[in-house]
Structure formats: C-alpha cells, structure tokens
Amino acid sequence: MERYELGRLLGQGTFAKVYYARSLKTGESVKEKVLRVELVDQMKREISVMTLVKHPNIVQLYEVMATKTKITLSLTMLKEVAKGKLKEDVVRKYFQQLIKADDFCHSRGVYHRDLKPENLLLDENENLKVSD
C-alpha cells in the first residue's frame, strides 16, 4: 500500500470496502477496493476478466495487491450517473458507450450478466464506464 495514499471510506458491502485513494507516483485519484481473502476464487476470475477487457468504456484495473488477509484492487475513480431524468442526447451517448463496451466484451468471450444502473459509472469527462 506504499504506492497509494488512502483516503476516506466511500462505501462498503458485505465482502468489501471501497476507499478514495491517490497514487503517490502519478497523483491520480483512484478507488481502492479492499476485499476479504475468503473471496479469492471470485477475485481471481474478476481480475483475469479485467485484464482481458481493456476498453475506454470499462473500468480500468491499475494494480492488484495482496496480503494474507486482504486483496486490494486499484481501479479508476468514478462517480455515479445522476439520478432522475436525463436529456435524450446524454442518454443516447451513454447507451452508445454501453453498447460499445458490451460488444467489446462479447468479442472476447466475456459476458457481464449483471448490467444495472449501479454498475454504470462516469469518469471526470462524463464518459460511461462499466464496472463489476
């Protein structure tokens, strides 16, 4: 964890905590997802898939760090899509980006199986990124 300055807790679920972090090398904001080691098989699958699907509309995995008790993933720092009614041109842009990401995954034999609003995020330029 010496490569990142860990910040505030952004959220947590049953098996993971997500923190804001900053790369000490680049200064870039990232998201640190810390998981309990019991999820090793699931995490190995997720990590191998994320290395296959490098695409502008898919969350980028920067680094994987592991100890005996935790697995930490450094991911692109993103925000949720605004709730409520969106303008048609914005929805069209997001939908086109989603289709491009999904098509890219399918061309590599990867199928998301859990596309839902919570897994559709935005980068600092308001471009859609598919997560999870």
From TrEMBL:
GO terms for biological process: signal transduction. The keyword Kinase applies. Pfam families: Pkinase (PF00069). Keywords: ATP-binding, Kinase, Nucleotide-binding, Serine/threonine-protein kinase, Transferase. InterPro entries: Kinase-like_dom_sf, Prot_kinase_dom, Ser/Thr_kinase_AS. GO terms for molecular function: ATP binding; protein serine/threonine kinase activity. Residues 4-132 form the Protein kinase domain. This is Protein kinase domain-containing protein. It comes from Camellia sinensis (Tea plant).
